[in-house]
Amino acid sequence: MNLYTSLIAQCAHKKSLTTLKAVHTHILKSGSLFSDFGHKLIDGYIKCGIIAEARKLFDELPNRHIVTWNSMISSHVSRGKTKEAIELYNNMLFEGVLPDAYTFSAIFKAFAEVGVLSHGQKAHALALVLGFEVSDGFVATAIVDMYAKFDRMRDARLVFDRVLDKDVVLCTALIVGYNQHGFDGEALEVFEEMVDRRIKPNEYTLASVLVSCGNLGDLINGKSIHGLVVKSGLESVVASQTSLLTMYSKCSKVEDSIKVFNQLAYASHVTWTSFIVGLVQNGREEVAVSVFREMIRCSIIPNHFTLSSILHACSSLAMLEVGEQIHAVTMKLGVDGNKYADAALIHLYGKCGTVEKARSVFDSLNELDLVSINSMIYAYAQNGFGHEALQLFERMKNLGLAPNAVTFISILLACNNAGLVEEGCQIFSFIRDNHNVELTRDHFTCMIDLLGRARRFEEAAMLIEEVKNPDAILWRTLLNACKIHGEVEMAEKFMRKMLDHAPEDGGTHILLTNIYASAGKWDSVIEMKSAIRDLRLKKSPAMSWVDIDREVHTFMAGDLSHPRAHEILKMLHELVEKVKNLGYNPDTKFVLQDLEEEKKISSLYYHSEKLAIAFALWKTCGRNTTIRIFKNLRVCGDCHSWIKFVSLLTGRDIVARDAKRFHHFKGGICSCKDYW
DNA sequence: TTAGGGTTAG
């Protein structure tokens, strides 16, 4: 008997299944009593990872011991077979075997995973009656963790407070619960409490509190916990490092995050991803792309977290070609089908002005959800496809999906960019009557733009009055509408009102200067310019860029410093002469300087978007690809008209993304139908 | 012979 016991123990220790099976057969042949060795064999099979065989023996075993029940239950839980674990637990109670601390520490995880709170609460009551809740740290931790997973932080806290001997794992479970539900302040409080009680935090604790510091932007605590990581000798623990660099990037200390990453001896795929995410969130998209390439070179496989982040980096910089390469990687890795990655792809194609590609990703989705539909509506909105956006909005409602604040911003933007005034007003009143969605400043900005551009200035101004603490952006939106319609007096009236709220807003001053300039009121322009000087405001220079063969070329208005300036100017003059024959007439009201007419015309020619297009046409001569240019400000009316003629003249499709939206020029027509 | 907590995304 002792020989079998020790043999089984050896097999379990070495995880040697073949020997275990041989011992098992030997026991059966020897005629020894199964009840004497059953428990040992079951333990052996569990340790060798063969749960099915353990279960078979368990079902045949008479007089099952509590330890064997516990082993069966916990082995099922740890392998994710939660339903079977709960079934075993219920059988155990049915047979009159009372659970102990080991049983409870395993079973609460199963209830949390299956998602039936009431069953978990019933087991909690039993643990309470049997006296395990306050006396056993393992049980208490499992209950705290379960309540946290059910989003019942108050219950978790009540249990935590009742426990007599709190240890590091129990405290960490509560901290994690708080941090995962957005209660970062509470997480830090528990951390301070444990430090006061002289409970030593470990790598699990530190990883979590660092995330909370990051979420709170609390660099002071973050840095002192960094010190603790070093002091505790946890610098080489990957999760602590991941949380550290996340903390720094969330506190906008991207350089520190880079420093942490560069000092790592090893980085897991999670660490690489966190690093990339931090870079993207801090506007370091280009660095993020090169880090992503480095990650691939190091044979670290990206997952849907990584891919959706890097796709967002491509969206921000409108890097279509790189984005397409990452789309291919996504497909190769089978990550397409993940809702976050798919939404990021739709977003990318929308941001790059390739709506048909966004739609093709959208059409390939097996299941539509709020995020994918929002992404598609936004793609339509930016590109001026108002009716398509509205159709999708209807489809969303028919599917029974409730629109959220993001949906409404996108749909209002869609109405705005397509000039669908009545539709926009209807949707805005719908949001007002629908108490599930709160109206934000963004919704108001969109409506003010829509109304202003439809010359409904008074209605727009009334909307601004409705907003608590209106910001300068709202007024600037209205002033921009005045500019489009040449309403100088109206603009002055709004400017006076606006100055009460945001007297030092540079954007508004510049806008009013431009309104005076386009109306030819040069005296007022001079006055405004001196006010702007007094405020020490700087106007951001107009800039356009174009990506050709993976190289980005940037152009500023009037700047002829490009190494190919000679070719660009030659092409530009040729284009201007040819489009004039087609009917292009330079419109000098877009020149915001007091110059002679002839000088005004030549200053129009050197607008940054014209330089970028001339360069792109020269560089891609003989190809028939779409030209994509990007501009930091809004495209000017004269350039808009010029590009239409150029698209007609050359037969090339031109897509321009300005600060607000896309313009697709084809055969002399723009997708915005001259409304922007 | 049996047990607990962590890091990344829209």
Automatic annotation (TrEMBL):
This is Uncharacterized protein. It comes from Trifolium pratense.
